Amino acid sequence: MPIQIVVVGYIMWQSIGIYTLIGFGSLFLLTIPIQAYASILSGKLRASIAGLTDRRVQLMSELVAGIQVIKMYAWEKPFNKIVSQTRLAEIKKIHSSSNVSAVRIELDKVSANWIIGQLPPILCDVTLKVKPGELCTLVGPVGSGKSSLLNLLLQELPVSAGTVGLFQFENEKPIGFKSKHRFIQDNPEMTISYASQDPWLFSGTIRENILFGLEYDHTRYREVTRVCSLLKDFQQFPNGDLTSVGERGASLSGGQRARVNLARAIYKQADLYLLDDPLSAVDARVARILFNECISKHLHGKTRILVTHQLNYLKQADTIAMIDRGCIKHQGTFDTLMKINPEFNNLLNNMKTNDTESLQDANENHSPKKLSEEVNFFSRFDKSRTSRISIRSQDSYQFLPYQEFTTAECNTQVDSETMESGRMSNKVYYRYFREGGTCIVGCIVLVILRSFFFMHVCMNAGRKLHNHMFSNVLQATMNFFHTNPSGRILNRFSKDVGAMDELLPRAMLEAIQIFLVMTGILVIITSVNPWMGIPILRTLNDWRVLQKSSFSHVSTTLDGLMTIRSRGKDVERMLCNEFDHYQDIHTGAWYLTITTGSAFGLILDLISCVFVTCVCYSLILMDPENTFGGSVGLAISQSLILTGMLQYGVKQTAEVQSQMTSVERIIQYTDLPKEGPMESTHPPPSDWPSKGDVKWQNVSMSYKAEDPPVLKNIDLVIESGWKVGVVGRTGAGKSSLISALFRLADDGLQGKIIIDDLDTKSIGLQDLRAHISIIPQEPILFSETLRYNLDPFGLTTANIDSQTDAMIQRTIRTKFANCTVITIAHRLNTIIDSDRVLVMDNGNAAEFGSPYELLIENSKSMFAEMVDQTGSIMAEKLREEVIKYHNERESFETFDDDENQQMYDIDSSTIIDSIKL
Predict the structure, then answer these.
(1) Is 429 helix (H, G, I), strand (E, B) or coil?
(2) How far apart are CA 780 and CA 772, in angstroms?
(3) H/E element, 629
(4) CA-CA distance, 468 to 465, in Å (whole number)?
(5) Separation between Cα atoms, residue 138 and residue 305, nearest integer Å
(6) 792/714 Cα distance (integer angstroms)
(7) Largest Cα–Cα distance of the chain, in whole Å?
(8) Which residue has the higher pLDDT, 242 or 579?
(9) What would the mean pLDDT of 905-915 be, rounded to a whole number?
């Protein structure tokens, strides 16, 4: 462009002299301010669009992560409305813009906060000392700062006061230590292994998740999986430890995810092990194995900090630290704290501590959940199918009849000028301005109207496609979310929607405009010389370059950032190399696009030059008597435009083709397999369920047709107002029982589930799920205020202390006294006062009866074995409570069902996973 300006300016100077400066000056004075204003305005609009886009993508990310909860709460329509409103605001903005040893730990008056300077601090004046090789347990109520203390040792939580020291010497002071933000290490090579409270798994096999970049040592690997009680699980899976865990471990149960997460931390030979409540997501028997075999024996001699709410293991700890409201209240051994500290004794009484006797090993049966065919997190190439869209333009030429122009008609204005002597009259100027100005103003108006109309059409199409895609994703089956990484789904709503909104309309408008201009040029040329209308056959194929998206890699990495950092520089470097590899593929593809486009453009320019040459020579060979000179000049000047326009037109056509791939992927998501009908043809009564009678009749369920069933011929009858506790080992099918109730795997569900004499399959999913509520096993919170999150969600009691547990249980017993309640629990004291207890084992309803029948009358039952595994003191206490509750029921009459009874469902990993409110 600068060279063209210089050349054109020189030619104009030779022709009209100093008046050239007036034209260029006017152009610059008008163009530069307008361009500057447009740039500023575009930047502001772009910033506002980015905020709305980020908000929409954030909503989608949270929605995909909590899709099971949203489905069970029947929140598809409200979330559809929220996302649609955000999308509409975004559309408006776009439209406007167009080696191993133990470690000594010393914390000296440490205060820390996530935001420097903010009060009160998360941790306040914390002093803690742990000797090398000791097991230190952190206990305290929910929100007291236990996990924050581990974050402090991981250098994730900034230190605002005091010092944190990690030393590999018992008494010596470090020499040449490393200090960073009051964080001291005497050995820069010191390693820390961390097991997070919320298990983080990436989309790979179980073995890959445990190894996590480390070399495979068969002996060590087998020992780690044994002490983490995973060998039985491997036998249940079709591919053993090579089974894919799915996105965020969707193929595994909650207890299995927790044990794989723990095994990854244990497999690493580290100096310090930080274990954030790994026992809460498993039942009492597995928890005992994990503590005795893994934490106590396998890691013996290593420094360990264990956060736990299972207070029956405190006697076996070398030191105990009580933390409350960010402060270490007391530290010492169990016996010392019991003797000199009444507060510690009160804590144990309030939290209902268990006995610490050892547990005899027993076999554990696990039933695998749905096994998803997942994309491997370490896969080098994206094997997902991408379709190619070809846009073909058929050259069509219309031969216009040659029109002769007489000299008198063409030279009228010239004669008017030649009659003037050295000047032109105002009438001539007026005619020029009238005819030329009218054309210019008309063109400007048409261009503006064209742009507005085209953008309006594109934005409406984009909004409808987005809403259609979002609606289909909400109604997709759970199998879709288990077999597709969240990054792939989010990519449709971010990258593809962005391309459809911003890149495609501009490229398509320019491609259409260039095509029409080129058509006009060819019409003019063929009107002068019809022989030039012979079309030039296309000899080059369009280039298609596949671009590898790294969305899944980045999303999964961010979810487990703390775990990754705790593994050290080697793992960080490995993941950085993986990302660099994906980025290299993308960059290589983009470079190939640019270079091939430039080469193709050069060829097109050469073809255009040959075409112009042919036009010129053909006009010379034409009969001059029948050819008007002005027409020849017009044909040549228009053909010269092809030199640059042909290349740009092909480039924009290729851009449209590339961006249309995003539209194609969006359209693919508008035709996803859906769940059953959301609305009922014959809706249930408004007060349904009025009693809460639930019947399972020969119910079997599998998550996929080729998978083994997770529920097998369940026959149950739960009467109105019963409180039913569901127990069983991890992977026994407890959560699958709830999935069947909510019809989350409708295609694999057989048999009947009848609620108040109404088959759940006969009503729409919206009507069914809207009348049954649940507190999920894994809490899902949205990026909003606390008040906002309190409204749509209840509080799960997973990973909480016993005091909070008791409070929630009192609430359930009083507020839901007349309601049918189903509680899935690992803590047996939670459901010991239930009317009935269901024992699940390998997908079967192994036992069903009252706690008195299963525990007192039948001392050999599976439920009695589970009670005995809690320890002799706790088992005796549970039996006393069963007898007490049984006598109370015998002495009082059961109250009648209230007409306003509702059905409530609770599914808890530790106490309660779910409750219908």
Answers:
(1) helix
(2) 18
(3) helix 629-668
(4) 5
(5) 7
(6) 32
(7) 128
(8) 242
(9) 38
CA distances from 590 to 14, 543, 544 (A): 44, 12, 11
| pLDDT for the residue numbered 555 | 62
Cα 370 to Cα 478: distance, rounded to the nearest angstrom: 10
The torsion region of residue 512 among left (phi > 0), alpha (psi -120 to 50) and beta comes to: alpha
**What gap in Å lies between CA 154 and CA 273, rounded to an integer?**
11
- 666 SS3 class: helix
Question: Where exactly does CATH 3.40.50.300 map onto the chain?
Answer: 104-350, 694-907
Task: Give the CATH fold of the 478-536+543-668 domain.
Answer: ABC transporter transmembrane region fold (1.20.1560)
Query: For residue 545, is it left (φ>0), alpha (ψ between -120 and 50) or beta?
Result: beta
Please give the Cα distance from 250 to 170 (Å, whole number): 44
For the chain, the first-to-last Cα distance in angstroms comes to 68
More confident of the two residues 247 and 723: 723
Buried b or exposed e, range 755-785, using 16+ CB within 10 angstroms: bbebebeebbbbbbbebbbbbbbbbbebeee
547 or 301: which carries more pLDDT confidence? 301
pLDDT at position 68: 72
Neighbours of 390 (CB within 10 A): 9
Task: Choose the CATH number for 104-350 among 3.40.50.300, 3.30.428.10, 3.40.50.1260, 3.40.50.1240.
Answer: 3.40.50.300
Q: What residues contact residue 578 under an 8 Å CB cut-off, 6+ apart?
A: 378, 553
Neighbours of 315 (CB within 10 A): 15
DSSP assignment of 682-747: SPPPTT-SSS--EEEEEEEE-SSTTSPPSEEEEEEEE-TT-EEEEE-STTSSHHHHHHHHTTTTGG
Identify the burial level of 318 via C-beta atoms within 10 angstroms of its C-beta, where 0-12 means exposed, 13-18 middle and 19 or more buried.
Answer: middle
Give every CB contact of residue 608 below 8 A, 6+ residues apart in sequence. Answer: 642, 643, 646, 647
Tokens 């507020």 belong to 815
Where do you find CATH 1.20.1560.10 in the chain? 478-536+543-668
The pair of three-digit structure tokens given for residue 453, joined into one six-digit string: 């109309």
C-beta atoms surrounding 162 within 10 Å: 17
For 553, the enclosing helix (H) or strand (E) is helix 551-559
Whether residue 141 is preceded by a cis peptide bond, meaning omega within 30 degrees of 0, is no
User: In what helix (H) or strand (E) does residue 321 lie, and over which residues does it extend?
Assistant: strand 319-324
Q: Residue 49 — very low, low, confident or very high, per pLDDT cuts 50/70/90?
A: low
> Which of the listed CATH numbers 3.90.380.10, 3.40.50.300, 3.40.980.20, 1.40.20.10 matches domain 694-907?
3.40.50.300
Find out whether 863 and 893 touch, Cβ atoms under 8 Å.
no
Write the pLDDT tens digit of every residue in 575-624: 777 777 777 776 776 676 667 666 666 776 777 777 777 777 776 666 55
The pairing of strands 749-755 and 844-849 is unpaired
CA distance 759 to 596: 62
- Cβ(702)–Cβ(710) below 8 Å: yes
Across 265-279, 776-790, 822-836, least confident range: 776-790
With residues binned 3-state (H G I as helix, E B as strand, rest as coil), the percentages for the chain, rounded to 5, are 50, 15, 35
Q: Which of 59-73, 208-222, 649-663, 785-799 is least confident?
A: 785-799
Whether the bond into 2 is cis, omega within 30 of 0: no
**pLDDT reading at 756 higher than 50:** yes
- Pick the most confident of 54-63, 380-389, 855-864: 855-864
Place of tokens 């989608």: 60
Predicted pLDDT of residue 386: 31
d(CA 153, CA 165): 9
Residue 343 in 3-state DSSP? helix
At 583 the three-state DSSP class reads helix
